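User: As part of a screening pipeline, I want to sanity-check one entry by hand. Below is the sequence and the SMILES for S-adenosylmethionine. Please return the complex as structure tokens so I can compare it with the automated output.
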Amino acid sequence: MQKHHVCPWWLTYTFDNPLRRLFHRPAIMFAGLVKPGMTVLDIGCGMGYFSIGLARLVGPQGKVLAVDLQQRMLDTLRRRAARAGVAGIIETRQCTADRIGVKGEVDFALAFWMVHETPDQAAFFRELALLLKPGGKVLVAEPKFHVTAGRFQEILADSGRAGFAVAAGSAITFSRAAVLSL
Ligand SMILES: C[S@@+](CC[C@H](N)C(=O)[O-])C[C@H]1O[C@@H](n2cnc3c(N)ncnc32)[C@H](O)[C@@H]1O
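Assistant: Here is the complex for your manual check:
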């Protein structure tokens, strides 16, 4: 188990600001992974930059479950989603550090810059494996400035012990990333 640190709400503004749309483009990042009508999970959603992008991709027939430890993140997400006109597509849930706590199954899950903050990564992936529909995919991205290449390999190894395999690499700015499937 690694020492973990949870990103405080105020630090989120250092990367989740208007410049972000220049280098983290949901339509490109999730191309081939997310389609209209899907149910998707955004774990450690923070203030919802990707939840909103995912909501636009799944559309009104789809659903985004946005889950975070911090209620303050979820409150900001709800305000942003309302401004973006996608509030009806996004359900927010507060979770605990050791349980995602979502019921049902999803077509796709995003864990963006959050796995290194979880207290038990192996347990995280074991729970995630139970939430994924057959054929479902997970995109895991970790921040290069916090997570070394070696540490990212350890995270992938933990996912492997939960039954995941790397289906594809993923080139995401400032990130080490992979698409996983069961
Ligand atoms: C660096 S922020 C990234 C936020 C968001 N994914 C983004 O890219 O804008 C990490 C987020 O993960 C959340 N988090 C940390 N540990 C978590 C856990 N065990 N379960 C769920 N969320 C967690 C934090 O509260 C924080 O909102």
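Points to compare against the pipeline: The chain has seven helices and seven strands. The first helix runs from residue 9 to 12.
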